[in-house]
Design brief:
mainly beta; about 130 residues; 12 strands; six-stranded mixed sheet; globular
Length: about 130
Amino acid sequence: EVQFVESGGGLVQAGGSLRLSCAASEFIFDDYVIGWFRQAPGKEREGVATVAKTGGYTWYSDSAKGRFTISYDNAANAAYLQMDSLKPEDTGVYSCANGPSSYRRYERGAELQYLGPERFHSWGQGTQVTVSS
């Protein structure tokens, strides 16, 4: 089974930036997505962003839209999360995992759907992100 290793977390002041990396140990199925998730102390794990391995489709949570950018590099077999304009509420352990893709099809395209953490597997150990005010 594929394993993921996250890196790039740290302590940053509000308004700062971090770039998280998620390296996969082996091949990821072409119809899969890679997701970044956050778990704050005392809270449940929540989805932050997902990216399809092919096609460039992405999904963002409302809190991540406009501030975070997720990407996938086929050559490196790795996903990245660029986080800008960080806020204290972004603090938590960020983990990545993979899962099946699901799309809402429209006449002129498609939209990647978020399926929830229960559909993802092969979770990494996570990397801590702390944003100070």
